[in-house]
């Protein structure tokens, strides 16, 4: 059967990339397909949120460069929490430059992303060299890292459509040891597949941003769909939720954050169970 009709557990047992395998195992063990996007600028809020949502997530998604008081101990603590609470870390860096530059941006600078992020993502716009550049760092790491290609974005008017998406998927098929899936809005198995593609063995994870239970969008082009639309109907594997859980106000209410995380975990898991039971 197609990957989205199989259980996360079966897919974990079969996956060859260690980061993908760890993520699928964690989803099965914690019964969650929820990733929380911790888009805040203060380190204290960052960790308050992570501690509140940790039991309910398989993945914490970061934009590490928006923290105003970042210091090296932040990513060290994040790694510690990840192993303590069993979740993976996804730095939403969206690399989009030549291979040599993205390799440096991934490994170096102040953040040294490859040291602590299990998963990163890249725009396919530069062509395959963006993948090989990042793989030159990620595949060297002791713990294998995984890359997601941005095949589709959630925003209104996004240019990630048609042939662009098809070419992104074709590129990913050439580097299946490192490219573990896509940021996308639906499954990609059928996309651009020719008869020579061994699609039966292919298991790309689909991580979908743009998920909300209470709002349809924001004032800056974001568009939201529900976990049922995203997981049951469109076959995505992980729901990525930011403001639906952390709120939009300046002050963080950890009790509300915790409740919302529980609510999205339950909705995401129910949507998955309805899908595999079909
Ligand atoms: F690639 C993408 C995309 O297509 N849409 C997104 O929203 C990434 N995102 C990220 O997911 C975005 O940068 C935010 O960090 C997060 C969504 O946050 P929200 O608060 O749930 O809208």
Which descriptors would you attach to this protein?
globular; 11 helices; 278 residues; binds 5-fluoro-uridine-5'-monophosphate; 8 strands; alpha/beta
Question: What do these coordinates show?
Answer:
Its EC number is 4.1.1.23. This protein has 278 residues and is an alpha/beta fold. It is built from 11 helices and 8 strands. Strand 4, helix 7 and strand 5 (146-150) form a beta-alpha-beta unit. Helix 1 (8-14) runs antiparallel to helix 2 (18-30), helix 5 runs parallel beside helix 7 and helix 9 (227-233) packs parallel to helix 11. 5-fluoro-uridine-5'-monophosphate is lined by residues 37, 39, 63, 92, 150, 153-155, 183, 209-210, 222, 240-244.
Principal-axes geometry comes out as globular
Which strand-content bin applies to the residues?
5-15%
Output the helix-strand order: HHEHEHEHHEHEHEEHEHH
Approximately how much helix is present in the residues? 40-55%
- Quick one: how many beta strands? 8
Indicate the structural class: alpha/beta
What distance separates the N and C termini? 12 Å
Radius of gyration: 17 Å
User: Overall mean pLDDT score?
Assistant: 96
Bound molecules: 5-fluoro-uridine-5'-monophosphate
Strand order of the largest sheet: 1-2-3-4-5-6-7-8
Uncertain segments are none
Main sheet record: 8 strands, parallel, barrel
Count of runs of 4 or more consecutive helical residues? 11
